[in-house]
Automatic annotation (TrEMBL):
EC numbers, comma separated: 1.3.1.76
Pfam families: NAD_binding_7 (PF13241), Sirohm_synth_C (PF14823), Sirohm_synth_M (PF14824)
NCBIfam families per UniProt: cysG_Nterm
Keyword field: NAD, Oxidoreductase, Porphyrin biosynthesis
Reaction catalysis annotation: precorrin-2 + NAD(+) = sirohydrochlorin + NADH + 2 H(+)
InterPro entries: Met8-like (IPR028161), Met8_C (IPR028162), NAD(P)-bd_dom_sf (IPR036291), Sirohaem_synthase_central (IPR028281), Sirohaem_synthase_N (IPR006367)
Taxonomic superkingdom: Eukaryota
Single Gene Ontology MF annotation: ferrochelatase activity
Cross-referenced Gene3D superfamilies: NAD(P)-binding Rossmann-like Domain (3.40.50.720), Siroheme synthase, domain 2 (3.30.160.110), Siroheme synthase, domain 3 (1.10.3280.10)
Domain Siroheme biosynthesis protein Met8 C-terminal as annotated: residue spans: 159-226
SUPFAM superfamilies: NAD(P)-binding Rossmann-fold domains, Siroheme synthase middle domains-like
Protein name: precorrin-2 dehydrogenase
Length: 236
């Protein structure tokens, strides 16, 4: 009998949400807001912060001064939601934050009200970032502190050069698409890239130069993956 995955309801759909150039409204300018701002700027969003200047903490004030974010110097007003693609609320006023949530739902804008799970379309998680690598740990509302501890354990277990290796693999994949752009070779491309990732060590992938990549790519037609040293010998 075929074995299919058992359904375990009660989880979240964890996705890598693309918010480049989307308008994110951050309500509040304290410590939690500062963290939300870093995460959304790192995802290339356009961020607006609404919060009285007197309430901005040092980090948020710095982002405003550096013009990394737009700033509206007052308390939240409903018109702030005009044009917002996402709202992140982190204020110390539960009545006002529930109002933000209700307005977001009327307008169908995805929102996170920090620390109020019933008023969240999505939760944040504990995040590890190393170049193009991102790992998010969620305990689905059960234990945020534990999420942070698990994330640290995972990060410690990773090789220190994994981010650099992934960056180089990204470059190699781009080059491969130029060498073999036809959609019909898609399956062959994927099989060959998987073979490269499996047979080369992380150190090989990190140390791979543009020359090495070009040398390796000459093997794509035949479909073999020689060791790095062999690619280098041929390049000499
Ligand atoms: C992961 C992280 C990401 C982030 O926010 O950046 C995050 N909380 C973090 C820290 C943290 N938060 C709290 C503590 C105190 C210790 C403790 O209570 O454990 C600590 C520990 C600390 O500060 O170190 C208190 C707390 N948090 C929530 C409630 C309400 C409730 O549970 O009902 C209460 C109780 C308030 C009270 O008791 O009054 C709710 C949420 N917090 C979430 C995310 C979402 C679920 C994520 C998940 O389950 O995995 C969710 C549902 C909604 C959301 O906010 O998105 C970040 C760690 C970042 C990092 O260090 O890596
Ligand atoms: N998820 C987490 O990790 C976590 C951790 C600690 C606290 N929290 C929660 O997140 C919220 C914010 O925490 P914080 O530590 O950043 O608080 P904080 O007190 O440092 O900041 C609150 C900010 O909200 C601003 N503010 C208040 N009312 C406002 C309004 N109507 N419009 C615009 N700005 C307004 C204040 O000026 C201030 O800048 C709290 O509800 C707290 O319970 C979450």
């Amino acid at each position: 009998m075929a074995q299919f995955p058992e359904i375990q309801g009660g989880g979240s759909l964890i996705v890598a949400w693309q918010i480049r150039d989307k308008h994110v409204l951050v309500v509040g300018g304290g410590e939690v807001a500062a963290g939300r701002i870093v995460l959304t700027l790192n995802a290339d969003a356009r961020v607006t912060v609404v919060c009285p200047a007197s309430g901005l903490n040092e980090e948020v004030a710095y982002r405003v001064a550096e013009k990394q974010v737009k700033h509206i110097d007052r308390n939240f007003e409903p018109s702030d939601l005009d044009g917002a693609d996402m709202v992140l609320c982190a204020i110390d006023d539960p009545v006002a934050s529930t109002q933000v949530w209700k307005l977001c739902k009327e307008r169908r804008i995805p929102a996170n009200i920090a620390d109020v799970p019933p008023e969240c379309d999505f939760y944040f998680g504990s995040m590890h970032r190393d170049g193009p690598l991102q790992i998010m740990v969620s305990t689905n509302g059960n234990g945020p502190k534990l999420a942070s501890l698990v994330r640290k354990r995972i990060a410690e277990a990773l090789p220190s050069n994994i981010g650099a290796a992934i960056e180089n693999v990204g470059k190699l994949r781009m080059k491969l698409r130029k060498v073999a752009p036809e959609p019909s070779v898609g399956p062959k491309r994927m099989k060959w890239m998987s073979a490269v990732c499996e047979s080369w060590s992380l150190d090989d992938l990190v140390g791979m130069t543009e020359n090495d990549m070009d040398g390796l790519l000459t093997h794509f037609q035949a479909g073999d993956v020689p060791p790095l040293l062999e690619v280098r010998m041929k390049n000499l």
